[in-house]
Amino acid sequence: MNKSSLSAIPQSGLAGLKENWRSDLKSGLLVFLIALPLCLGVSVASGFPPSAGIISAIIGGMLVSRISGSYLTINGPAAGLIVVVLAAVQALGEGDALAGYRYTLAAIVVASVLQVLMGTFKLGQLSSFFPTSVVHGMLAAIGIIIVATQTHVMLGVTPESGSLFSIIAQIPHSLLNMKLDIVLISFLGLLILTMWPLVGSPIPAAVIVVLVGMIFAWHFNLAQESAVRGSNYLVAIPDNFLASFYFPDFSKVFTVAFWESVLAISLVGSLESLLVATAVDKLDPYKRSTDLDRDLTAVGIGNIVAGLMGGLPMIAEIIRSSENVNNGAKTAWANFFHGLLLLVFVVFFAGFIQNIPLASLATLLVYTGYRLASPKTFAHVLDVGKDQLLLFVATIIGVLATDLLIGVTLGIVVKLAIDLVRGVWLGNLFKIHFTIQQQDKDTLIVKLSGSALVSNFLPLKKALARLEPGKTIIFDFTNGYLIDHTVMGFIHHYQQNYEAQGGQCRQVGNALETFSNHALAARLMTADDRK
């Protein structure tokens, strides 16, 4: 990268605020408009009070943005955590929603301490151990669960409590007993989400969904109907924001269910945050890199504060972060402004929020869930290879049939089994063999021996991160055996980033076999020489 481009990189801290406050405030305002309904929807779907998501987003914006290692990510509650949080509320509460909420707050605090420890001890890179298709399978399973549970809300029907498959089995009953005015609000919301991108308006589609929903909720007098029927069709938050704060109950800290919730919240929250932060770095026009360990520590601190105040766990959220980049944000002050605006709005305009129909929020979540598990997602995974589809589907089935932790573990086990079947030596499964040699003053050769897999490539990733920019790097795979899809994807993105900084990269070695026509498919470089 030349000096002129370096000088164009936005400053950080107070200097960055002075330099970029206009662009960051504008982006923060637009992100706030998206965040408000999503925070409410994620809260309700998670079994938390609606204001819990707003508490989390305020802390994520105003606190975490000041101590994090990222530049453009937006922190707050996200759909990816709905499943683990709702499961914790149900398991710990045993039918008592308020008690389950307070027990789950305690689990969030303990899980957040683990996040801080992971960041402190530089364990942020451990996210690399999870195969790409397993992560996508986990997210797709979450999407399916969100669609299944929120469909009932869109129909205006409350299903009987039970397992996931019981909730899915009750959808026909909800269809037969749907409330037509609620369904109309939901249908209009889906129509807007589908068609609004064609309009090309700078106003986020989520804002239009909420406003249209509020107009029809007023027309159908849902506020009075909720009071008469005892059903809750509108968002219920207190007039005084301070009344939204709840304190955690640690009395179940010595139970197995409590620690299962802690591990699930910590694993999914940390993994999603790290993956999103890395993805947002690729969108950053200035090609800045997040300090993943510092970012994980900051999110953990934010989650401790959120858990102590009654908030949901937060992560780096991809939809809001992507919009932040697209809106022209320059620094983390955009995240701060988005949190500040949420605080101002919930303090002074609680009455507005109380008129938002739950059906509109459910529509936003169902649309998000569908995108996580759409047919395009399945087709994309299949395009990379049948082996990746197997990992993807195995993870989905595992999550739906059991829980997130077991489902992800199943996906990893299937991945290791595939590698062994393909001839990877047991000793090479978790240990990589490579050398980095200097050919001349400006050329480095990274020579692989044996297999490079998601289960062993972390040392290679760390070694490449230490290389001086501006050189020519030759990846020599001629003595390699199996290079899997996750490693191919990592090398591809590494090359892009390294070349953006003025260096050059190329690969040497012809594959004996690739497992699909995709450019980043897993490949065998040489024959198995154990025979």
Highlighted features:
2 domains; globular; 9 strands; alpha/beta; 531 residues; seven-stranded mixed beta sheet; disordered N terminus; Transcription Regulator spoIIAA; 22 helices; 8% strand
Number of DSSP strands? 9
Structural class: alpha/beta
> What is the general shape?
globular
Percentage of residues in helical conformation = 55-70%
Distance between the termini: 48 Å
SS summary, helix count: 22
Give the amount of beta strand, in percent: 5-15%
Describe the fold and architecture.
- By secondary structure, the chain is of the alpha/beta class.
- The protein has 2 domains: about 15-105 and about 180-370, no CATH class; about 425-525, Transcription Regulator spoIIAA (2-Layer Sandwich), CATH 3.30.750.24.
- Helices cover about 60% and strands about 10% of the residues.
- It is built from 22 helices and 9 strands.
- It has helices at about 5, 15-45, 50-65, 80-95, 95-120, 130-155, 165-170, 170-175, 180-200, 205-220, 220-230, 255-285, 290-310, 320-325, 335-350, 350-355, 360-370, 375-385, 385-400, 405-420, 460-465, 485-500; strands at about 75, 315, 435-440, 445-450, 470-475, 480-485, 505-510, 515, 525.
- Strands 3, 4, 5, 6, 7, 8 and 9 form a 7-stranded mixed beta sheet that branches. Strands 1-2 form a two-stranded antiparallel ribbon.
- Strand 8 and strand 9 (about 525) form a beta hairpin.
- It is globular, with a radius of gyration of 24 Å.
- The N and C termini lie far apart (about 50 Å).
